[in-house]
Amino acid sequence: MGCAGSTDKSDDGAPKKLKRPKPWKHSEPLTQTQLKKMREEFWDTAPHYGGKEEIWDALRAAAEAQLDLAQAIVDSAGIIVTSEDMTVCYDERGAKYELPKYVLSEPVNMIKDD
Hints:
The protein is built from three helices and five strands. With 114 residues, the protein is an alpha+beta fold. It has a domain at 30-105: Ub domain-containing protein, DC-UbP/UBTD2, N-terminal domain (Bacteriocin As-48, Chain A), CATH 1.20.225. It has a three-stranded antiparallel beta sheet, with no helix packed on it. Strands 1-5 form a two-stranded parallel sheet. The longest helix has 14 residues, at 32-45. The termini are far apart.
């Protein structure tokens, strides 16, 4: 049903393990509310970028989960992760899914809501 290994292999042949995205900075400081709104807008429109809705759903669940659970989600959904931070993924049919860093982690210039 799924592929033998849902993640690309590392140089030693072992599957790549997901890692947290590297720290990043948004062009202007964001509040938690603004970040949440950006994330909701992305996930609401993501299926319109192409690919399968169930893969988008799995990617969202993985993006919002702890690393161990995220790994299990992408493995069970047959998602091929080409970047360890999940910014670029493929499904078993080769459709590409690109995730912006703001859905995967918080920026270093996050500010408190008023």
